[in-house]
Amino acid sequence: EVQLVESGGGLVQPGGSLRLSCAASGLTFSRHSMNWVRQAPGKGLEWVSYINSSSSAIYYADSVRGRFTISRDNAKNSLYLQMNSLRVEDTAMYYCAGAAPFDYWGQGTLVTVSS
Amino acid sequence: DIVMTQSPDSLAVSLGERATINCKSSQSVLYSSNNKNYLAWYQQKPGQPPKLLIYWASTRESGVPDRFSGSGSGTDFTLTISSLQAEDVAVYYCQQYYSTLYSFGQGTQLEI
């Protein structure tokens, strides 16, 4: 059974930083591209970032480009999202998801940006 | 970037009746080399992550009841629930994966 478990969320002040992690099991992680998707409270889904299996292709949504950095460690079966210069509008549940179409999702980790 | 627009934003359907949700993309998501539409549908219930229902516009994910079906091609797509059950109350999203700058529709709230 595939499991994706996110961690690292929490309360941070505007302008601050946070690093999210996603631990994967039950799949050959090194062969899969991965994604981060977020959902603001009471709002819809927003794709955030993509990384391919070898980290040679990386993409970001316009809303986070230049502030967020996606990375992965295939030896540790882990995906990361470094979030800098956080804004109030970055407040959301952040989900780790597998390759598109997203058949694997984690339960999410909540990021709250507030003073 | 490809913009996905769903209609309606919310929908109330009686138990046992048909529910239809529409999704329109700002450009075609049909890849001519393999004749596949890079369009997926998800169901999200409160407090849960989304669940993949349909991919390639019309292929049901394993375990998804056959009352769920997807249709359409190019820029216009439809999710149909043939006979609404109480457990189908949820928000439904379409998503394009034709471009790696993936994008979702705004969601359709389905109620009884």
How would the global form of chain B be characterised? globular
Helix percentage range of chain B = under 10%
Q: Which value, in Å, is the CA radius of gyration of chain B?
A: 13 Å
Please give the count of helices of chain B: 0
Q: Estimate the strand proportion of chain A.
A: over 45%
Fraction of residues in helix of chain A: under 10%
Reading the helices and strands of chain B in chain order gives EEEEEEEEEEEEE
Neighbour order of strands in the largest sheet of chain A: 2-10-9-4-5-6
Structural account:
- The complex is a heterodimer of chains A (115) and B (112).
- Chain A is mainly beta.
- Helices cover 0% and strands 48% of the residues of chain A.
- Chain A has no helices and ten strands.
- Chain A has strands at residues 3-7, 10-12, 18-25, 34-39, 45-51, 58-60, 68-73, 78-83, 92-97, 109-113.
- Chain A has a six-stranded mixed sheet, with no helix packed on it. Chain A has a four-stranded antiparallel sheet with strand order 1-3-8-7, with no helix packed on it.
- The radius of gyration of chain A is 13 Å and the shape is globular.
- The N and C termini of chain A lie far apart (40 Å).
- The mean pLDDT of chain A is 97.
- Helices cover 0% and strands 50% of the residues of chain B.
- With 112 residues, chain B is mainly beta.
- Classes of the chains: A mainly beta (115), B mainly beta (112).
- At the A-B interface, strand 5 of A face strand 6, strand 7, strand 11 and strand 12 of B.
Offer a few descriptive terms.
heterodimer, A: mainly beta, six-stranded mixed sheet, four-stranded antiparallel sheet, about 0% helix, B: about 110 residues, seven-stranded mixed sheet
Give a brief outline of the structure.
With 115 residues, chain A is an all-beta fold.
Summarize the topology.
The complex is a heterodimer of chains A (115) and B (112).
Chain A lengths: L2 E5 L2 E3 L5 E8 L8 E6 L5 E7 L6 E3 L7 E6 L4 E6 L8 E6 L11 E5 L2
Parallel strand pairs in A: 2-10
Antiparallel strand pairs in A: 1-3, 3-8, 4-5, 4-9, 5-6, 7-8, 9-10
Chain B lengths: L3 E4 L2 E3 L6 E7 L4 E2 L4 E2 L1 E6 L6 E5 L3 E2 L7 E6 L2 E6 L8 E7 L6 E2 L3 E4 L1
Parallel strand pairs in B: 2-13
Antiparallel strand pairs in B: 1-3, 3-10, 4-5, 6-7, 6-11, 7-8, 9-10, 11-12, 11-13
